[in-house]
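chain below, 436 aa
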Amino acid sequence: IYQIRKINYLLSGLGSKYSNLHILDLSSIQNEIGCSKIFSSTQYVTSGMVFSLEALPIIAKHCVDIISGLEGNIKKCIVLDLDNTLWGGIIGDDGIENIQLGGLGIGKAFIELQTWIKELKNRGIILAVCSKNNEDTAKLPFEKHPEMVLKLADISVFVANWENKASNIKYIQKVLNIGFDSMVFLDDNPFERNLVKEHISGICIPELPEDPALYLEYLYSLNLFETFGVSEEDGDRTLQYQIEAKRVQFQKNFVNEEDYLKSLNMVATVEGLNEFNTPRIAQLAQRSNQFNLRTIRYTENDLINFQTDKSIHPFVFHLEDKFGKHGIIGFIVLKEIAPNILFIENWFMSCRILKRGMENYILNTIVEFAKNKNYKFIYGEYIPTQKNNMVKDHYKNLGFVYNNEFWLLDVFSYLSKISYIHKNQTHVESPIITTA
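prediction:
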């Protein structure tokens, strides 16, 4: 027992050290289904198979969850109902003092559910509220109930009104600017679940058990939020989306989009890879699906290895405006494929900053770099996937010319595009990549 636990302990240490090593914890599966179900003596003797036929599909699902997460198929947001989902009872009818929430009775189940949701938020999952309620009433437990684990500061978008939930979730999606297939909707009411399911394609809607005591164990079994690392920016994500909601409200004051963009006072910072931004770029590479021209997934080791390849030129883009910082929002990899030609090996961006003119700013930046290095042409490629249809005309819209499956841009005939984003710092000539 000591030797086995020591080996597993050391494996866990290696998993922390190497970002491309992912460990499937079989002991947790055995604890869930039982030793008698995970192993069959008869089957082992007759076939040599260590795992029983009953256990294999469960183990396979956990493997697929890891692979799916590595491919970028992850959930980014959880949309929460309130009454009988985050607490027992109806706040509008029962009042704050009578809702079920606390360490005794069924209230304990809701506390444990909220604790799990809080942990999701701390590792970068976006929390939103969608409730049929008066807003002030819905917010009351978050503000004043002593047993509430979740607070208003944990919620990126809070929607409480008497409109139908499908419309409200569409509003939340618009504010967050993520795909519906990246969202999970938790609601105890089968009617509300079915209504949203009928009107919103792709959203994940777990069929919560009738007994709240079973909520958490059921959600554990779905393994919806598989993640492979947590960056410092994950802890700031809630605040970023709260600020984004303010931007959406602020935009309503403008009829002209140009005036709105000018008023944001946007500033971009461009840098190379370094030990601070590499984990975030690796994470963004896994999560970016919609604005991703070639959908190449990078691990931290891949990015670190760029330092030995002099033909690679990486660009990391940050953005901030009058409301606050967006953080790292984009990544470009240029690769020299001939003495006078650069190829855009990858271009992906966060959907949070769409329609801000960042595409123009990025192209201006890389063309300026190409001119300074005497490259004559920049080639781009779009590889279609099920999720990146939104960028199929990306290069066409930027002025590239289609040429034998690739998009071509003549560097020295390029005219700088209009952008209302100001430069803070130019890309360094030799981006620094520091290993730990």
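The CA atoms of residues 24 and 63 lie 7 Å apart. The longest strand covers residues 324-338.
thats it, cya
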